[in-house]
């Protein structure tokens, strides 16, 4: 970008109105917050469309938008895999299969499920890792925000870091999860209103989709599944083993089904059916998102000179470049608002996940036990302040990788990918023992770290199959395989430890394991209610998977 | 687990505060501002957007979405009959 955006008075007005609304949300929802259940779970009162939109928004932080556009420019059409393959099947699985284990057992968090299913050690390990990771992620979000604001408006880094931290602080410490969720719903519409003009004008300027296809120089950038033969891959994301198994199965399922920052939105739903439909409702907008991220990235390759080349703008500059080039005052203000809102929503999701796990899973069971509810409500608010303070500090630390999303995925493959192996075994095999959960998770994380360190010496991950002195590793492919390795190690260790240790009595596992229903389940009455087909998770899930498969096939044939 | 009973409390946020009105209000205001801008945009603004009167179209779209949320919130008030 040359110079900052030329913002008019009307753009500042639109921005100010949004942040006024966000503060109003905090103040309004605060009146309904009396207990920890209100603060951390929004009183389990939300309809599915609200939690569904919050679910997608919690993952539509500006990191994902900026990073998605960067992936579109760097990997081309193959970047749709991060949506259709790397999210939707996992979201359907969460809604259809796993949600009853979370919602009907009335756990407050994903970590608490581990405490009930395994033991305190497993629980504490997972809680601490999650809490630390969320603060780091919030810090990464903040840092990215500050970089973008500096690029767009010219403010110094420290000013935007402090300002946005204060706004997030305001609406989460006041309104708790309800404040975060309402903010996310609002953000969803504003970010779309900001991205639509970029896509419309961008496509118009290159002559629509057919013009885009003709103008893309490198045919590899039009390939989604082409060129994914193991050992001879030419696809920018490597071979199909890494893609389908590493990204589509291990990484995606690990992220979407066990990441509490996402699952928490479903837990705020008013009943089990609404909770199960939360990720399913979110899957529909998720399906359309490549249009708003990947497509602008590919357009930018054509219209922005030297994009991603030495001396030119970086891939992360795609959205800012397009805003400056195309948007007149008015839609420009909305796009800027949407981007800033998305950063804060992403951070708010991290912080509201953090404060819940810190209070319910670390402070209450292990540090200060047995106090009245009001004490823990206060503790939750202090934890929010402390979490934001740490993330502000972390914001200045991490910037070693040039593609932000690679950094995030690196974190995921260490923590999240082994986690899904543990959950899968825990939910479907009642024999899995408490200590198997602990050692499985720990060894899986160690395996992920080891895989990352050794990948650079393995020719399989390099174009041509050999480590040459001037070759660069396919980092995404190495991540996918690393996740796969971590998953396998976790599963093997979990099974091995299970065979030599004592399982939990079956009576303690009711509602926690497939095939052992809880006769006293608070949601038992719902099983008797016959839902219309459009409220049935199985029907919705099938529709989503069919549509996604059709889109994927169409993309291979059409381009 | 006394905090689990809050779902039936009339003071829960979903009942006292309907986010649909907030969506309708914010998008309605944004839509109105953009529509006016779109009508008055000069040649420079239209040229910047590759010949599209973008403020007008996005403004009208926002007004339509805002109207839809207002109608929905009016016809099915929170607390009964929502999805």
Task: Map the helices and strands.
The complex is a heterodimer of chains A (559) and B (83).
Chain A: H1 9-30, H2 36-41, H3 48-58, H4 62-75, H5 81-85, H6 88-103, H7 110-117, H8 120-152, H9 157-206, H10 208-215, H11 240-258, H12 260-267, H13 272-288, H14 290-303, H15 318-326, H16 331-367, H17 373-395, H18 404-428, H19 434-454, H20 475-500, H21 537-558
Helix pairs in contact in A: 1-9, 1-16, 3-9, 3-12, 3-13, 4-14, 6-11, 6-13, 6-21, 7-8, 8-9, 8-16, 8-17, 8-18, 8-19, 9-10, 9-14, 9-15, 9-16, 9-17, 11-18, 11-20, 12-16, 13-21, 14-15, 16-17, 18-19, 18-20, 19-20
Chain B: H1 13-16, H2 19-40, H3 43-48, H4 54-75
Helix pairs in contact in B: 2-4
Question: What would you say this structure looks like, in words?
Answer:
The complex is a heterodimer of chains A (about 550) and B (about 80). With about 550 residues, chain A is mainly alpha-helical. Chain A has one domain (about 10-405): Sodium/glucose cotransporter (Up-down Bundle), CATH 1.20.1730.10. Chain A has 21 helices and no strands. The longest helix of chain A has about 50 residues, at about 155-205. The radius of gyration of chain A is 23 Å and the shape is globular. Chain A starts with 8 loop residues before the first helix and ends with a helix. The model of chain A has no long low-confidence stretch (mean pLDDT about 85). Chain B is mainly α and about 80 residues long. Chain B has 4 helices and no strands. In chain B, α2 (about 20-40) runs antiparallel to α4. At the A-B interface, α1, α2, α3 and α9 of A face α1, α2, α3 and α4 of B.
